[in-house]
Specification:
Layout: H1 7-21, H2 30-36, E1 48-54, E2 62-67, E3 73-77, H3 82-86, E4 95-100
Parallel strand pairs: 1-4
Antiparallel strand pairs: 1-2, 2-3
Helix pairs in contact: 1-2
């Protein structure tokens, strides 16, 4: 698993090493030890997907959309944008960034 650290903490560790480097008191490997001592951040990968409008199942009152990441199907009242009005995130964790199927002809 990848580890992530804050950029500012890493810059500060390197600046401290740079400050003491000319004095001869910085032991070999100190820079890498200083960076390893910075605690890892708790992060997760961001998955982006979009809702795909289906013409197969819907009617005048309800539109049907499928998640491009996991194929989950949702029913949305016609006229609403599922990514903005109903489900900006799918249950699979994907962030819905756009909608396809109406304006672009897909």
């Amino acid at each position: 698993m990848k580890e992530h650290i804050e950029r500012e903490a890493a810059v500060k560790a390197v600046e401290i090493v740079d400050f003491y480097k000319g004095s001869g008191i910085v032991p070999s490997g100190y820079a890498s030890d200083a960076i390893r001592a910075i605690p890892a951040a708790d992060v997760r990968e961001v998955v982006k997907a979009h809702w795909i409008k289906s013409d197969l199942f819907g009617d005048m009152m309800v539109s049907v959309y499928t998640c491009s990441n996991c194929n989950r199907v949702i029913r949305v009242p016609s006229g609403l944008n599922p990514a903005k009005d109903i489900a900006p995130f799918c249950h699979c964790g994907a962030e819905m960034t756009e909608m396809r199927g109406e304006a672009d002809g897909n």
